[in-house]
Amino acid sequence: MSSADAAPLSAGFSSFSAGALAAWAAAFWAASRASSSASSLAVSMRGKMFSPLAYTKTYALASAFVLGLILLPSLSYWLFSIKIHSRQIRKILNYLLIVAGIALLIIYGSIPAIGLTAVGLNNLLSGYWKKPQMSTYINIGITLFVSIYYLSEEWLPMGPQKGMLANILFVAGCVAIILSILWLLVMYYERILRWCLDNRWKFMLIPGATIVFGFWIWRGVYA
User: Fold this and answer.
1) What distance in Å separates the CA atoms of residue 15 and residue 199, rounded to the nearest whole number?
2) Residues 35, 39, 41, CA angle at the centre, nearest 5°?
3) CA–CA separation, 33 and 220 (whole Å)
4) Are 150 and 130 in contact (CB under 8 A)?
């Protein structure tokens, strides 16, 4: 892509990011106003019961906003940019992962801790794979499995009466849908960006509608 083509794409990305941030800000503003309005109604027993919930929701939204836009991207960039060239040090670290996973399993009974042991073993056996990237794919699969199991165990979206398998399948389906949407966004990002550039006002309807509905909800709660 030439520099002439990259310039409008860069500008479009800035506009796209600004629109997304506007939508996030509008949603957070609406939730904050709703929470503060709900808290102002704490004159009865019902208000006193739901006031802590309103504050908790607001603080959770604020924390997620800060973590998602500031802390996590910086930590991810720093973590994945670390490269250990010494083969001996990598071997020692993998052994430490194996021991840490077993120790956590014995001490805390945490099944997801086995993922550390699996990653360490996979890294030690990476030289036996014909394809160099196979070890990376296996580590990604281990990470996904551990994340799905942990979410299923803590969240239990289907309820404990449905069993662990049903919860794991439900969470795995949700994760698959989200990853598929993100993958499609990556594959068709240039087309989406060009459409947003050619239809700026249509795209701005998304953050605009968010602001309108947020204000509408806030007025309904406040009234």
Assistant:
1) 12
2) 125
3) 11
4) no
Q: Tokens representing 194?
A: 């060009």
Nearest to 142 by CA among 118, 125, 113: 118
Nearest Cα to 59, choosing from 21, 22, 37, 32? 32
Measured in degrees and rounded to the nearest 5, phi and psi for residue 13 equal: -65, -40
Dist CA 140 CA 142 (whole Å): 5
The model's pTM is 0.61
- pLDDT block averages, 10 residues each, the chain of length 223: 45 45 51 52 59 78 82 81 83 92 89 89 87 88 91 88 92 93 91 91 90 80 54
**Tokens 């409008």, residue located:** 8
Q: How far from 45 is each of 33, 37, 52, 157, CA to CA, in Å?
A: 21, 16, 12, 30
What tokens does 158 get?
Answer: 């289907």
Cα–Cα dist 37/96, whole Å: 51
Cα gap 144→178, rounded to integer Å = 13
Q: Which of helix, strand or coil describes residue 80?
A: helix
